[in-house]
Amino acid sequence: MVLLARVPELGPIEPLPTYMSRLAAANGASSLRDFRRHMGFRLDRWVGPADVCNRLSVVTGIEAGVLMSRNFNFDHRWFTYGTQRLPTEGLFRTAPRYCPKCIEGDFNNGAGRLDVRLRTRFPWLLTSIEVCPGHRVELVTSEVKYRGDMKLDFAAHVRTNWREIEKSIAEVKDTEVHPYDSYFFDRVAGKQTGNELLDPLPYFAALRLCTIIGDMVAPVTSRGRTGKRIGLTHPSRRMGFDVLSSRSSLLSFLTVTGDSFVNDNHRKALGLYGKFGEYLTANIDMAELQPMIEMVRDHAFENVPIGPEDGFLGGAGVRRWHTLRSAELETGVYFTVLRKILVERGAIPPSERGKKDSSVVVSVADVEAAAADYNDRISLEALADRLGLLHVTVRRLVRAGLFRSIYGTTSNMKEMFSRRDTDAMLEQWMGGLETTPLTENLVPLRTATRGFGRQSTELIFAYLDGKLSTKYLDEDASKTGFERILVDRREVRALLVKQPPGHKIHELSDKFNLQSRPGKAFFYSGFFEIVRWEPGHGRKAFDVATSESVERFFRDHDSLTNFSAGWMKRNQLHRVLKAAGITPLWSHTGTSINNVFRRADIEEFRKRSS
After folding, report:
1. Is 567:542 a contact under the CB 8 Å cutoff?
2. In principle, which of 135, 317, 376, 487 could form an S-S bond with 301, CB 3.0–4.6 Å?
3. Rg for the chain (alpha carbons), in Å?
4. What positions does the domain TniQ occupy (predicted)?
């Protein structure tokens, strides 16, 4: 075979069948069908395409590999074009389809016969593409359909329907070009694209995901007999592409879909993320889809109450969230108890408390902590028995902060404490002590304060603070806690009955025989050194006048009441001292009561009057 007389140039993205239509027209054939029959090119049989491309290469001078890459190679419901694998149903061969602007450019810039100039671009033949991004116009689909034996014979259509093409060029209008249109046009055209989620996927998978997600986010519309939405295919794909334009937008979509899934009272992973999740599950073995599957699975475990046992997208992952129902199944703790504990701890916010148990979502960490505390719980009565103390004493220790409840601080739950923490504290307090029998002075710590007017809690804190040097364990192992700890009663007395370093207000008033209010005024009159005394163990601090300053003042001064005792009546003494010109050092009211005089003045007056 020799080269044909006229071989038109093969367009950059021109399919082989439509190129052969131009080749037939250039060499005088009446149709592509007649050209194939005459030359023996039976591509329509879908068999032996390599042999046909080799023979076609001989007569055109175009490399067979290039021709093979432009051919439609069918395999059941799929076909390949170059490196793209696409579903056969997505290939539009019913009627001519074209961009009026591209056709106009071919007409103005080409040479030769009209039907040979106009080239078909592969993206025009895909039902998923409806816009020419370069010219920003919609593709036109001819009302004249191809005959059954003349599929893709575009040159023959141009010869017989040029007026229709002229009309479409004249009436063309600009349209909006969405990033979806540009992206998928560029993908099939072999141009560079930049979508981190869709670029790794085969074309058909990327398109299918846009369709599925778009159908999920598109508003509800009427449906046909097949159940599919009517008139939203292309717009919904654009919506799906917007979701898949970045990781952040896809994750936002997953968050909204996951929240809806939980709110619909689902407890299993079945149905999670709807059709999108079903598609990923059905294609879980697709290597190109693995990065997206891992991202979706990680997001699901991060945000939705599912676990590996649910088998979502292969089942890998670690559970991070529970519903109250799944928490009950895993921990064995009744869900109403878990709800009360988690509400008390703030793990279930007020906005969630009115929801059903299967819709309340709580972190695994909070559930495990609540379940562990529930299984470790002991009541106040059990705590008192474990400590060997009276209930009232344990209550005081709880109020003082020595023991903290693990839950039950609200009115609708009984207060509970930790058995594990209690045993650890007792081991710390009692560990290493020697055993010895009871004696007159070695008594149980629980009763060691009897007769001292002190509460046992004071002694317990003193013991825990290390203020007692003598401490043993009772030989009787049946006793528990502080009932078994032995301390020296004498040491306890010295510790608890210890007096402040001076006089309190009422003690100073008694010493000088002053009334209560004047006594307080005298206490703060500046004659004494005042210090702040901290008794500790929760008792309030108070002021005392140091013993040294009181005794030093008392050596040279005393009250009129004390001076008059055994001498004369206080009122009478007050009058005679006043008549003698002897005035008090301190006086509260100016009367005979609540006065303080110098001893030297009183002694001198006594000598003169004797």
Report:
1. no
2. 317
3. 50
4. 7-139
- How far from 554 is each of 149, 399, 501, 531, 562, CA to CA, in Å? 134, 44, 17, 18, 11
The amino acid sitting at 223 is R
Could you tell me the sign of the dihedral formed by the alpha carbons of 54, 56, 58, 60, in that order? negative
Which residues are within 8 A (CB) of 598 and not within 5 positions of it... i.e. 6 or more apart?
A: 556, 557, 585
Half-sphere exposure of 357 (CA within 13 A, CB side): 14
Q: What is the pLDDT of residue 231?
A: 42
Structure tokens at 543: 């002021």
Tell me phi and psi for residue 365, to 5 degrees: -60, -45
Of 586, 590, 564, 561, the C-alpha closest to 578 is: 590
Contacts of 215 (CB under 8 A, 6+ apart): 229, 232, 236, 240, 275
pLDDT tens by residue, 10-57: 998 999 999 999 998 888 888 888 888 888 776 554 446 787 888 888
- In terms of Cα–Cα distance, which of 126, 119, 142, 10 is closest to 72? 126
DSSP summary character for residue 353: T
d(CA 24, CA 61): 15
Distance CA 497, CA 103 (A): 110
Question: What's the sign of the alpha-carbon dihedral 197, 198, 202, 206?
Answer: positive
pTM of the model: 0.66
Q: Which two tokens stand for residue 531?
A: 């210090």
- Residue 443 CA to chain centroid, in angstroms? 55
For residues 33, 37, 42 and 43, what is the CA-based torsion angle, rounded to 10 degrees? -30
Instruction: State both tokens at 288.
Output: 């190109």
Q: Helices (DSSP H) in 312-432: which residue ranges?
A: 324-331, 335-344, 364-375, 380-387, 391-399, 419-430
* Domain residue extents for the chain: 16-182, 194-314, 321-375, 391-498, 502-609
Q: Nearest CA to 374 among 330, 347, 338, 401?
A: 338
Secondary structure of residue 141 in the 3-state scheme: strand
Residue 387 near residue 481 (C-beta atoms within 8 A): yes
First to last CA, the chain: 166
Residue 230 pLDDT greater than 50, yes or no: no
- Name the 3-class secondary structure at 332: coil
Contacts of residue 438, defined as CB under 8 A and 6 or more positions apart, other chains included, come to: 444, 474, 486
Name the CA dihedral angle for 45, 46, 49, 55, rounded to a multiple of 10 degrees. 20
Give pLDDT tens digits for 278-315: 999 999 999 999 999 999 998 888 888 888 888 888 87
pLDDT tens digit sequence for 53-72: 888 888 889 999 999 999 88
The Cα–Cα gap between 567 and 564 comes to: 5
Using the predicted structure, report yes or no on whether residue 124 has a pLDDT greater than 60.
yes
Q: Judge contact between 397 and 457, C-beta under 8 A.
A: yes
In the predicted model, what is the mean pLDDT of residues 165-183?
A: 93
Show the tokens assigned to 38. 């005459």
pLDDT number for residue 223: 47
What count of other Cβ atoms lies within 10 Å of the Cβ of residue 91? 18
- Listed residue (397, 382, 381) closest to 464, CA to CA: 397
Q: Are 194 and 76 in contact (CB under 8 A)?
A: no
Structure tokens at 494: 């010295």
- Using CA atoms, how far residue 27 sits from 7, 24, 34, 38, 112, in Å, is 8, 5, 12, 12, 12
